[in-house]
Amino acid sequence: MKNHYRVVALFLFLIALGGCATSGNYKEKDQSLAEDTFKPLSSPEFNIPIVINKEVEAFIRYFQTSNRRHFVRWLERSERYIPMMQEILAQNNLPTDLVYMAMIESGFNTSAYSRARAVGPWQFIKGTASRYGLKINWWVDERRDPTKSTLAASMYLKDLYDMFDSWLLAAAGYNAGENKIKRAIVKHNTEDFWEMTNHRYLRKETKQYIPKLIAAALIAKNPPKYGFTNLEYQDPLEFETITVTEPTDLRTLAQMLVSPYEDIKILNPELLRWCTPPDTPEYTLRIPKGKKEVFEAKALEGEPQSKEKTIFHSHKIKQGDTLYQIARTYGIQVSPIIEMNKLKSTHTLRPGQFLIIPVKAKSSDQQT
What we know:
Layout: H1 2-37, H2 54-64, H3 68-91, H4 100-106, H5 126-131, H6 146-164, H7 167-176, H8 178-188, H9 193-196, H10 204-221, E1 239-244, H11 250-257, H12 261-267, E2 283-288, H13 292-300, H14 303-306, E3 309-316, H15 323-330, H16 334-341, E4 354-361, H17 363-366
Antiparallel strand pairs: 1-2, 3-4
Helix pairs in contact: 2-10, 3-6, 4-10, 6-7, 7-8, 7-10, 11-12
C-alpha cells in the first residue's frame, strides 16, 4: 500500500513537472518572441510610446550609415525649430515628442516639396492644409510657415488621436490618411499598429513610418549614443513681429533694418515672392530679434512712406516677347521678374501667359 502511494505520488509529481515544463517552455518562447519583436521602453525621456524592435533597429542603422549625411543635416537644423514647435505642441496638450514627425517628414526643411505635392516642414498636401486653415495662393504658402504649419499639424494630430485613442495610430493616420487607418482597423479587427503591419493592407511607407519616427526620436534625444558627435547645431529661431499696412518689399525692409535680406527671407518662408501680398491690408512679418525698435523708429520718421513702393502690373505675354523686352518696357531689371514669377529659365515664356511685374514707384506717383 505504501508502495502504491509512492507510485501515485510519483505519477502526480511527473504530471506536475511535465505541466510546469510545458508552461515554462511556452512562456520562454513567448518571451523570446517578445524580446525579438517588441521591447517597450518606459522612460521619462519620451512621451510617445517607444518600442524597440527589428524594424526600429533597421532604421537606426539606416540613419547611422547610408542616410547619415542627411540625418546629420536634420539634427543640426533641428535646434532651429524644435523649441518653437514643442512649445506649440505643449500649448495644445500634445506629446512634444511628436516634433520628430517633422524630422522624418522634411528634415525640418521649410522648403521641402514631395512628389505627392506635400509642402513644408509638416508636409501638408493642399486639401488637408486648407482644412486646417493654412492659406495657399500666388503670394503665400503657409505650409512653409513653421509656426502656422505646426499649429495646423497640432490640430490635425489632436483630431486623429480623438479618432484612434493611440498616438501611434494618429501618426500612422497622418501619413496614410485617417480613412486608411479606419479601414485597416475594421479589416484586421485590431487597433494595434504593429499587428496591422503583419498584413498587406497598409502601404510599405506607412508600415515604416512609425519605426522611422521612433528611430529618429531615439537618436535625436541622445546623438552621441548612436555615434553622432561634433554636430554644429543651428541657433533657435529668435525673432520679433511687426505689422505692415501696405505691400512691403523685403529688400527695402532689410535695408531699413540694416539686416541681411536672406535673414528676412528665412524668417518668412511662407512668402513666395519677395514682398508681402498686395491684397492684404495688414500683414505680420518676422524680423530679427532686436530690430523692432529700429523699425518703429524709422516708421515714426516716415521712412517707409518716403521710400519707393512697389506696384504690381499684370502683363500678358505676346508672341515674340522676351524677358529683356518686358523688363525694358517697365524700366526694371530682369531678375525681379524671374524671382516674382518663379521662372526657372528665361526661355519658358508662353504666349497668353501672365506675368506679375513689380515696379518701383514713388508714393506721390501712386496717388495719381
